[in-house]
């Protein structure tokens, strides 16, 4: 069974940088699975910033929804899924059944051979949001993080670019 | 003197589940002290979700304001107070003196015999809220957490369902 | 080269209290470098609260923008910079080049002899803010924390008034 890592933390806490280093430590070259859907220039700028930092050792795959499929298609080398929270956003904005999708993802992990490093965001440590959608989203993100963390061999919480081992 | 535990963390970070396990490990059966006031259907649904997860080993007590009284009345077995942040909300929305209430709670702890596990929320790790009430609330919640943590024998910070020992 | 500490955490998580104790442990008396600009009564009240808690061992310096200058001028004793996040706020609201200022600050650290304890806020662990300025600010705050953490000899994350060692 594949080794599963989860790297979670706040915005700009160094999650992706840490997760990239951990993925390459598991094997080179590696797959980079981007879940971002490019909605506007701001997001395009963020993605370009991340891509510029990564080197030629990475093969990039864009997959906003079907993580089960892309994980099966990239089972020959370590892969980084960046990130679960954007994947959840895509599911919820697309009015998909995110719980079913999350459970299908978790169910698919034992069949994988190559390691998977998941990046995720912690979004539940601020004041309760005013609007219902944001509250539902932060609840879903929290549950998703718990489920993936339970399945993971190792869980890292990043603070100021530094890893704290949680599991 | 009673053993005091504090389990704090973000929304959907697994605080309650961890705190329930810790309470039952201190003794069975146990008391569940719910501080939630049911304002609307959304909150009723959240409470029902929590209750469904707990088993018959729990006696439930609903007490939105007077924690000193309910802790004295349940001093025959371990109890879980879920949660301090909703208690603070009730105090502030009811225009009570929350600092006096918090100090009375802390002053009452040394007289208790049975363990108390408090659940609390971390709400101060997002952007500064726009409105004054939310800023006052997050300040109060932060101070309350500090005070209870100082009085506690053990403090746990939960991330993605996993406990990190802080004290 | 000066010993550099970073104490980061949420609002009312006990960052300043911990940082003050750490600064005095490095030497007495010490300098307190306040970056706050007093905009309104609410902020004045917060500052008065902090000042009341500190004792006569501290010499206070108010410097909202030029940290390089004030660190050079106070290089005879340990100093506490409280805090980097307000400094960043001042730079961004004043439409200064915060990245250039941050890099100048980092470049100045190796020339210092006396220890520096920086206090900073974690602001990236809530829901993505609605407005662009807040998103830019939390990105900048996250990068600034990463850069200072990378330069620091020790990094502390405070939760409920308690220190967690990150580095």
TrEMBL record, chains A, B, C:
One of its GO terms (molecular function) is GTP binding. Keywords: ATP-binding, Cobalamin biosynthesis, GTP-binding, Kinase, Nucleotide-binding, Nucleotidyltransferase, Transferase. Its EC number is 2.7.1.156, 2.7.7.62. It comes from the Bacteria. It is an enzyme of class 2 (transferase). The keyword Calcium does not apply. GTP binds at residues 9-16, 34-36, 82. It catalyses: adenosylcob(III)inamide + ATP = adenosylcob(III)inamide phosphate + ADP + H(+); adenosylcob(III)inamide + GTP = adenosylcob(III)inamide phosphate + GDP + H(+); adenosylcob(III)inamide phosphate + GTP + H(+) = adenosylcob(III)inamide-GDP + diphosphate. The active site is at residue 50. Pathway: Cofactor biosynthesis; adenosylcobalamin biosynthesis; adenosylcobalamin from cob(II)yrinate a,c-diamide: step 6/7; Cofactor biosynthesis; adenosylcobalamin biosynthesis; adenosylcobalamin from cob(II)yrinate a,c-diamide: step 5/7. One of its GO terms (biological process) is cobalamin biosynthetic process. Pfam families: CobU. Gene3D superfamilies: P-loop containing nucleotide triphosphate hydrolases (3.40.50.300). Transmembrane segments: none annotated. CDD domains: CobU. Catalyzes ATP-dependent phosphorylation of adenosylcobinamide and addition of GMP to adenosylcobinamide phosphate. Belongs to the CobU/CobP family. PANTHER family: BIFUNCTIONAL ADENOSYLCOBALAMIN BIOSYNTHESIS PROTEIN COBU (PTHR34848:SF1), PTHR34848. This is Bifunctional adenosylcobalamin biosynthesis protein. The lineage of its organism: Bacteria, Pseudomonadati, Pseudomonadota, Alphaproteobacteria, Rhodobacterales.
